[in-house]
Design brief:
mainly alpha, 4 helices
Length: 124
């Protein structure tokens, strides 16, 4: 039975490492910040969680498992917040990028439909 657990742990660690590697390649290869943000947030976090799951399986019965669980929980809690903040900053900095101005047009269209409201200035 120990061999089955070892194979399962090794598989999880290898899949996690593969996902983390694809995230690193995406960060290097994608052209702009918004595209890189996707590669940095999603596959990297899932890859790290898979590596942690593999380590927990391998270290079953050890006291250090709780530290790995805490690392996984904090990563899952902070990664979406960081990605959201980076995405907002990148959107503000790249307003002239092709396709992003459509979202800005929706904001202006909404303000034209409601003449009683003033058009908001740029948010900082």
């Amino acid at each position: 039975m120990s061999a089955v657990w070892d194979v399962l742990a090794a598989t999880a660690i290898l899949l996690g490492a593969l996902l983390a590697m694809t995230a690193a390649v995406g960060i290097v290869r994608f052209p702009d910040t918004l595209s890189r943000m996707h590669a940095a947030a999603k596959p990297q976090v899932v890859g790290m969680v898979l590596v942690l799951v593999g380590a927990v399986i391998r270290l079953r019965g050890n006291v250090d498992i709780w530290m790995l669980v805490l690392v996984g929980v904090f990563t899952l809690l902070t990664a979406p917040v960081i990605a959201h903040v980076v995405g907002r900053v990148a959107y503000r900095e790249q307003r002239g990028r092709e396709g992003l101005e459509i979202l800005g047009d929706l904001e202006h269209r909404h303000n034209r439909e409601r003449p009683d409201t003033e058009r908001p200035g740029p948010r900082l």
